[in-house]
Structures are given as structure tokens and as C-alpha cells.
Design goal:
The structure holds two protein chains of two kinds. Helices cover 0% and strands 53% of the residues of chain A. Chain A contains no helices and twelve strands. Chain A has strands spanning 3-5, 10-14, 19-21, 24-26, 33-39, 46-52, 59-61, 64-69, 74-79, 88-95, 101-103, 107-112. In chain A, the strands form three sheets. In chain A, strands 2, 5, 6, 10, 11 and 12 form a six-stranded mixed beta sheet that branches. In chain A, strands 3-9-8-7 form a four-stranded antiparallel beta sheet, with no helix packed on it. Chain B is mainly beta. Chain B has strands at residues 5-7, 10-13, 19-24, 29-37, 43-50, 53-57, 65-68, 75-79, 88-96, 105-107, 111-115. In chain B, strands 2, 4, 5, 6, 9, 10 and 11 form a seven-stranded mixed beta sheet that branches. In chain B, strand 9 and strand 10 (105-107) form a beta hairpin. The radius of gyration of chain B is 14 Å and the shape is globular. Classes of the chains: A mainly beta, B mainly beta.
């Protein structure tokens, strides 16, 4: 079965705090891709990152960083020094060898000024 | 950067009416998808489309739904007789034709459908 679990439904942090969004996935595919998308209040899905199953290197992009650990089937997302503009719903998604994306239920992040 | 364009951004329709949601994928993409997101819930797969036919569909995609690519550029989702529970954000996505099968997906900005 393909499944993505985002256990954190809502998180609130004060501006400039660091925050980590958790993502745990299940798949039987040996080749798969993991994604993070941001959904601001306007509703669109904004692509943040794609990571394939053979690349466990952590990635940093500005204030964003991702920690991929196959041993624990996790792909966590950290925002450093959060800003009000980071307030959004963040979705983790999995894609195996089939046609479908499997999205988690999303984590709603509120950054308080 | 190339975009997937969806129109309209918001559509209101009466229950029982037919509605067509339109998408213009990126021009060199050959794989097309529709997803939906009921308000406050996760994004769900509806259907994938390649070479002018449906390649995969979910159980949500019943006989009330259809897709087509009428003119080689637009990719449409039709709901024949809308129900209140069809109210959702509908996302179109397209993918490059590449041997890297899981590469190059782009999502549109979505159409919010409200059925009243």
C-alpha cells in the first residue's frame, strides 16, 4: 500500500522560531519519489522539493531543509527562522512506479508575528 | 518558467448542472492528471491520461466524470450532473515525456468549484 502520514494537523510558531514538519510514508516500491508542496491561502500547490528513493542526502535551500531517512521511512521538512509568509498548509506526497501521487493530509502552519 | 493554466479560477454551479473545468498543460508534456481537494482535506487522485486515453483512474472517478483533450492543447474535466459533494478545488497536472518516469510534474493553480 502507498500511504503518507502527516501526524501534525496544525502547528503555530512565533516568527523566527525553527519548525519541523513531519512526514512518514509507506510504499512497497523500491523506486519512488517524495515531494513537499506548499499551499498558501490562495489555494494553489507550490512545488518545494522532489527527492528520489536512491538519494538520501539531506538538502538545504535557503531557510528550508529536508531530512530523508529510509530507515525510518521519513522525509521531514524544517523551516529555519520562520516568517509570517511561511504560513500555509504543507503537503508531503509520495509517488511510486504508478501514475498517482499520494498526498498526506497536510500540516497547517501558522507563523505568529 | 512554463506553467499549467487552469480556468476558471472559481466556478459556481447549481446542483445537477454540467460543468467543464479547463486546463492548458505545458506544451511539450504528454501525461495529464486531475486531482481534487475537498476543503480542508488531502489532495486526491482522480485520473491520468496519456495518448488520448485514460491510463488510470480512482474510485472517485465514476460515470459522472469524463476527460478529454479536444484540440491538442486543452485538457478538460467534465462533471455531468454536479452534486453538492463535488464542491472542491480541482488541480490539473502535467508531466514531461521522459524516461525518468517520476520527473517533471507541474500542477496548475486549481479551479475552485462550488456546487449550490
Amino acid at each position: 500500500a502507498q500511504k503518507v502520514t502527516q501526524a501534525q494537523t496544525e502547528i503555530s510558531v512565533v516568527e523566527k522560531e525553527d519548525v519541523t514538519l513531519d512526514c512518514v510514508y509507506e510504499t512497497r516500491d523500491t523506486t519512488y519519489y517524495l515531494f513537499w508542496y506548499k499551499q498558501p491561502p490562495s489555494g494553489e500547490l507550490v512545488f518545494l522539493i522532489r527527492r528520489n528513493s536512491f538519494d538520501e542526502q539531506n538538502e538545504i535551500s535557503g531557510r528550508y531543509s529536508w531530512n530523508f531517512q529510509k530507515s525510518t521511512s521519513s522525509f521531514n521538512f524544517t523551516i529555519t527562522a520562520s516568517q509570517v509568509v511561511d504560513s500555509a498548509v504543507y503537503f508531503c506526497a509520495l509517488k511510486g512506479t504508478g501514475n498517482q501521487f499520494y498526498f498526506g493530509t497536510g500540516t497547517s502552519l501558522t507563523v505568529i508575528p | 518558467e512554463p506553467e499549467v493554466t487552469q480556468t476558471p479560477s472559481h466556478q459556481v454551479t447549481q446542483m445537477g448542472q454540467e460543468v467543464i473545468l479547463r486546463c492548458v498543460p505545458i506544451s511539450n508534456h504528454l501525461y495529464f492528471y486531475w486531482y481534487r481537494q475537498i476543503l480542508g482535506q488531502k489532495v486526491e487522485f482522480l485520473v491520468s491520461f496519456y495518448n488520448n486515453e485514460i491510463s488510470e483512474k480512482s474510485e472517485i472517478f465514476d460515470d459522472q466524470f469524463s476527460v478529454e483533450r479536444p484540440d491538442g492543447s486543452n485538457f478538460t474535466l467534465k462533471i455531468r450532473s454536479t452534486k453538492l459533494e463535488d464542491s472542491a478545488m480541482y488541480f490539473c497536472a502535467s508531466k514531461q515525456n521522459t524516461l525518468r518516469l517520476n520527473y517533471g510534474y507541474t500542477f496548475g493553480s486549481g479551479t475552485r468549484l462550488t456546487v449550490v
